[in-house]
Amino acid sequence: MTARKRYWLMKSEPDAFSIDDLQRVGTEPWNGVRNYQARNFMRDGMKVGDGILFYHSNTKVPGIVGTATVASGAYPDDTQFDPESDYHDPRSTREEPRWMLVDVAFERKLAQVIPLEEIKRHADALGEGFPLTAKGNRLSVFPVTAAQWKQLLALEKKPPA
């Protein structure tokens, strides 16, 4: 029996790491997450092959810009051990790391951004409490149901052939 594929949304500021950066490098460790719930999703929930909606936040038009896949199981985020890193955590040790990450592999860029404004217009269909449409939710990594994945990607406006 094979495990069921799961789906996730992962946010990144394009000035820090964009979908173009991921396309250029192919696969990248998703480091710097310092929220326990987001860490737990990566550590306990994500499996190799799971789908990822890549979301650009903190930009003029925030929204879903591409898709990716989970390319590794969870492992310690090395930035927590580096005193020179913005993500250094002096309480974390190699024997007992606090922060985990997964590798993310580029799949494709969307033909056009699916803007947050458009996503919010479909809040009812996405379900109550969907993190992108719920007030106050700042998680950078969260699960998406298979139905939400399909609904969100259906909002992609493909250019005429």
UniProtKB/TrEMBL annotation:
Cleaved signal peptide residues: none
Top-level taxon in the UniProt lineage? Bacteria
* UniProt-listed SUPFAM superfamilies: PUA domain-like (SSF88697)
Q: Per the database record, which ranges form the EVE domain? A: 6-154
Protein name, per record: EVE domain-containing protein
Q: Which organism is it from?
A: Stenotrophomonas mori
